[in-house]
Specification:
Elements lengths: L3 E8 L3 H21 L1 E9 L4 E3 L10 E2 L2 E2 L1 H8 L7 H9 L6 E5 L4 H4 L2 H6 L3 E4 L3 H4 L2 H13 L4 E2 L10 H10 L4 E7 L2 H9 L6 H10 L8 H4 L2 H13 L10 E3 L5 H4 L2 H7 L4 H13 L3 E9 L2 E9 L12 E8 L7 E6 L3 H18 L1
Parallel strand pairs: 1-2, 1-6, 6-7, 7-8, 10-12
Antiparallel strand pairs: 2-3, 4-5, 9-11, 9-13, 11-12, 13-14
Length: 366
């Protein structure tokens, strides 16, 4: 039986990238013996350091207590040669090996800008980075077209819903001839965590801080609070559903005034408690009515919108716990009752697992 082999360059060693590298190291032997799949890490890079070995990195040298240690790897990685976006690009393009996959676990615009050049050389892309899929429409379409033409892959399942199979499900529905006619979703694990956490004892500003400490939020939580992250995700789902939306096309009904996003991050944190009284009043109102607050993304009649909504106990999103996400897919076949996908929508471990799943899907395709 032919061994399915894949060569991987991982970009990003933060929470998601680190979790993915740990999973790759832990599962490498199992995949070989039980799934006939050989995933070889030939490079780990970020904007600070670059480590490339065409023959594959020896992960055993980073063992601690008998198994791979991400902490030990990070210490060694700091001693690797200095990196830059240009060096990353040149190093990947100079590998010249088959079945090469560039895995992007950053949130970098500069790294996302490398995708087209890699796909041009038949290097597959797997990314948690949602910038490319939600950015310029023509650039997105060209990425998809190039991957198809060059018989390589551009997978970004974790752009929406972390490890939930949302994008793949939409793709499968459309491939079978179904059509997405309406979509309704709670797509921000961060915002769901915040609105599930605020209480008489925990004000809005504290809940935001807790989301950051739990690593549910973006490094700059203003991206979440401004709705930008949800808008990006809605645009991606719309495009994958066959509606060519851009971020400017989405109607944005935001719940934090723009002035809180205009200054520095330090200014934002200093001013955030000013909103606590407003959100406590809102919390008391919805609690008295037996409702919950949810930041909802909608796609209907080809138009997208995001807004903070009060949902009652009849709404499928009412009982969402913690940082869970939910997507309701109304299609020509799933009508009037939608297909519902629900589960963890944030967290390094589940996001890394979703990236891992995209990698395995590519390995099986070869």
């Amino acid at each position: 039986m032919q061994l399915h082999k894949l060569n991987i360059v991982l970009c990003g060693t933060g929470t998601v990238g680190g979790a993915l590298l740990q999973q790759l190291a832990d599962q490498q032997q199992y995949l070989k013996t039980q799934m006939n799949t050989d995933l070889q890490v030939v490079g780990v890079v970020d904007i600070f350091n670059i480590l490339i070995n065409r023959e594959g990195l020896d992960m055993s040298q980073y063992a601690g207590n008998g198994s791979f240690s991400m902490d030990k790897f990070r210490e060694a990685f700091k001693q690797a040669p200095t990196s830059s976006v240009e060096l990353i690009r040149d190093a990947v393009l100079s590998l010249h090996i088959d079945q090469l996959v560039f895995v992007d676990c950053t949130a970098s615009y500069e790294i996302a800008a490398l995708y087209q050049g890699f796909l041009n050389q038949s290097i597959s892309i797997v990314c948690a980075n949602k910038i490319a899929a939600s950015g310029d429409l023509n650039a997105y379409l060209k990425l998809k077209e190039t991957a198809l033409k060059n018989d390589c892959k551009y997978h970004f399942e974790t752009n929406v819903g972390a490890g939930l199979p949302i994008i793949r499900t939409i793709s499968d529905l459309r491939a079978s001839g179904d059509k997405i006619v309406k979509l309704e979703a709670v797509l921000s694990g961060t915002l769901n965590f915040i609105f599930n956490t605020i209480s008489a004892e925990i004000p809005f500003s504290k809940a935001v801080q807790m989301a950051k400490e739990a690593r549910f939020s973006e490094p700059d939580p203003r991206i979440d609070l401004a709705g930008l992250d949800v808008v990006r995700k809605l645009v991606i789902l719309a495009r994958e559903s066959g509606y060519m939306l851009s971020q400017d096309d989405v109607e944005k009904n935001l719940f934090v005034p723009q002035s809180y996003f205009d200054g520095s991050l330090e200014d934002f944190w200093a001013r955030l408690p000013e909103l606590d009284a407003q959100f406590e009043s809102l919390r008391q109102e919805v609690e008295a009515k037996g409702q919950h607050l949810r930041f909802v993304a909608k796609l209907e009649n080809g138009k997208g919108s995001v807004s903070l909504e009060k949902v009652d106990s009849q709404h499928p999103a009412y009982n969402l716990e913690g940082s869970n996400n939910i997507v309701l897919l109304h299609t020509e076949r799933y009508n009037p009752h939608p297909m519902i996908i629900i589960g963890y929508g944030a967290g390094a471990g589940v996001t890394a697992a979703g990236v891992f799943d995209d990698i395995i899907a590519i390995a099986r395709a070869y």
